Please model this.
Amino acid sequence: MPYRELDFNLSKETIAMHKEVQNFAITVMRPAGIELDKLHNPEDVYAKESPLWDVFKGYRELDLHMARMPKELGGLAEDLDPMAGYLIGEEMGYGDSGLAISLGASGMPFSFAAMFQHVPELKQIAHDYIEDKEGRMIGCWAITEPDHGGDWSLGGEDPKCGPSVTGVLKGDEYIVNGEKAAWVSNGTIATHAVLHVGLDPSKGMAGQGLAIIPLDLPGITRGKPLDKMGQRALNQGSVVFQDAKIPKQYMVFDASAAEIMVGMGEVILAGANGGMAVVFAGLARAAFDEAFKYSQERIQGGVPIFEHKNIKLKLFKMFTMVEAARANARRMALYNNAHQEMPSGVHAVAAKCLSTETATFVASEAMQIFGGNGLAREYTIEKMFRDARASMIEDGVNETLSLQAVEFLV
Ligand SMILES: Cc1cc2nc3c(=O)[nH]c(=O)nc-3n(C[C@H](O)[C@H](O)[C@H](O)COP(=O)(O)OP(=O)(O)OC[C@H]3O[C@@H](n4cnc5c(N)ncnc54)[C@H](O)[C@@H]3O)c2cc1C
Model:
């Protein structure tokens, strides 16, 4: 359905970029996501001939990977209208949410590397990523562990809840051991990672450090790709450390920086959840559009089902919720973009919960409108429902995130 754009003062450049990304989302991401979703073996998602690589290449060719990279390294961050930044995320979620998350996570270590460009190795990594139009450099965010999920939000200083992946400084290197969970997005294909690692076990999660690392260092291996219900186009897999030697300069926050790391925790929380809010507002809109279109095509009672009042009421409620999620995500994204060093974590978590719960509700109601066809794999709504459902657990279960974020209100 053509949407009336309520932000009516967009610049010509932003409108042009929006159209370009919309086209990429619909003509490249949507069909690739549908094809990847149907693959039985998750290893095939990232096989050499997989359409995944067309998505990565297309994204880089449009320079979208440069959107968050600073101008001084050749990126576009300062020149890009913040509204364009929001629209890119929403349209990618509209195209395929799993692939949108894969592309979003793929840039994370590099935008972090740009923040620490006083370290020459990290400056080089950030620069190489900007130059990479092929999609050779791919990032991931390695935080969750097999035994620690919600603990990353709520573990605090309790040593029982501290990280299992630990690092010990020996000379100029950290010796790192342990395993990051199979949930790490891009875990099977990433070349670089943002790694959360326990450096002071006596302080639980408060004793963590943060490293930006290449994943080809000796002692780092990968697990099997995860086989899951939704967002199957998003490859996920564990990252295993066995006496891996991480050069000291990659540890951007060490044990002595615990207090700064607390502040950084909110920046990461706001970034990850803010991105989720924008992408899943896009999926909510996509699910609404599928239902709206179907309601005008399907004839029952001798008329398109749109003519039945129960369907009209459902659609209008869905529309209202989609617009609320989009407006909220947009407002949060613009604020946090303008306050990158002190973003609002609480608004990002609120927007993540609203968008993911809206996407799940709207996709479920859309299935109801599709009747039996809503359950058939032939129709995209069934996939959208599975993709949306995963989002309420992704990057933190909504309940644990809420328990963490509510403390920011005190
Ligand atoms: C699609 C997807 C993508 C993901 N991408 C990444 C990624 O890129 N990188 C990464 O590192 N991880 C990633 N994750 C992992 C994700 O962040 C975790 O799954 C999430 O944090 C929950 O952890 P868990 O699965 O271990 O659940 P658990 O922490 O075991 O939670 C189980 C249940 O217990 C509840 N619970 C847990 N702790 C508490 C508590 N203290 N108090 C009250 N209730 C509690 C939770 O609300 C939940 O209902 C991804 C997950 C998904 C689904």
Observations:
- The pocket of flavin-adenine dinucleotide is lined by residues 105, 141-144, 149-150, 154, 183-185, 231, 390, 393-397, 399-400 (CB under 6 Å).
- The CA atoms of residues 261 and 360 lie 33 Å apart.
- Strands lie at 139-142, 166-170, 173-180, 192-198, 208-214, 220-225, 237-247, 251-253, 299-300, 303-304.
